[in-house]
Amino acid sequence: MAAEGGWRPAGGGRRRRRRHREEEAAAEGGAVLRRLREARNDLLSSGFWAASAGAVRAPLGGTAEPPARCVCYGLGRFSCCPAARHQLAFLLLLLEELGVPPGRCSVFDPAFSAQEAAALAELGLRLLPDNEEGKHGIEGSATLFYMVHCGKALYNNLLWRNWSAGALSKMVIIGNSFKGIEERLLSRILQRDYSYIAKVLKGTEEVALPAHPQYLDTFNDTSVHWFPLQKLQELSPEVWDLVEEPTYEECEIIRKEDRADQRSATAAEA
């Protein structure tokens, strides 16, 4: 098509549109990171982080090995959700406090957008490629699991995957209070559906994050959990005998097949 002063190059409009989209994405990514810095400043200025630091350091006051790496599940849509953004800002402060480099922190949530994945990469965090359903083995490395407000099945799956005194003693879990789970569930349901949580309760130390009026919904029912080797060794030997992989009739987490079904449906509609 002729243009004033000559011919318009083929595909010039497509290139401009692509460049415009890239510029928009870069601007949106910058806005996400700016809001994240604001969330960090909120945590620091409110005093919540300072008040939480004692709970965060509690496992290190005994014989627990300092974590060398971190795994984060269930963070949520932090680009548009203030609570998720504050949880991510807390995680970044946590990594600084414990001396864990961002590159040794792996993150996964099936809800992440491409923009959020890019922001996490910009922060130096590593995105896990697959939905592990919480079944992440520590492979001998002391590991912090950051799992605020995750479904009970994720905690249960994580415990199952690392079901030995040696592995559990190298783990710290920040997430929903195990004591709270025990109090809220009928004993028979806990024993039947979340048996690994039930079996590890007597081998668990737990310290709750402090309540703060600004973050009642963001960090409510959140505790730091660790598993001292001595306490684990005092559990009945029968506790360690049954290592059957958990199954759930009704599951409050997104499973691998759920994500695959969603992709298949999307492809069929395209």
TrEMBL record:
GO cellular component terms, A-Z: cytoplasm; nucleus
Lineage: Eukaryota, Metazoa, Chordata, Craniata, Vertebrata
A family per Pfam: SRR1
Organism: Glareola pratincola (Collared pratincole)
Similarity comment: family membership: Belongs to the SRR1 family.
Signal peptide: none
PANTHER family the record matches: SRR1-LIKE PROTEIN (PTHR28626)
Annotated stretches, region: Disordered: 1-24
Protein name: SRR1L protein
Residue ranges the record marks as coiled coil: none
